[in-house]
Amino acid sequence: MPTGSIIFFKEDKGYGFIRPKDSDDNVYLHISALQASGIDKVEIGQRLTFDLLSKDGKNSATNIKFLS
Q: Which of 23, 34, 61, 64 is 20–30 Å from 14 (CA)?
């Protein structure tokens, strides 16, 4: 399971990006993935683990869990 941190999240639009620890390629983060993981709010810099979901050549985060 990759780890990373939130680098951007636009709450009113419901999306953002994660910077994976071992990659320079940002991962798309959608509010629906957060809600499915039971997460209501995120903050820039929060560290997390996630699974990658590839669709149409793009990666998005799923199964998100915050690290303490």
A: 23
Torsion of CA 31, 33, 38, 40, to 10 degrees: -10
Residue with tokens 């990659």: 23
Distance of alpha carbon 22 from alpha carbon 64, whole angstroms: 17
Two tokens, residue 49: 């683990």
Predicted pLDDT of residue 2? 94
Say how many CA atoms lie within 13 Å of 22 toward its Cβ: 4
Q: Which residues contact 60 (CB under 8 A, 6 or more apart)?
A: 27, 28, 29, 30, 33, 52, 53
Tell me the C-alpha distance between 30 and 18, whole Å. Answer: 10
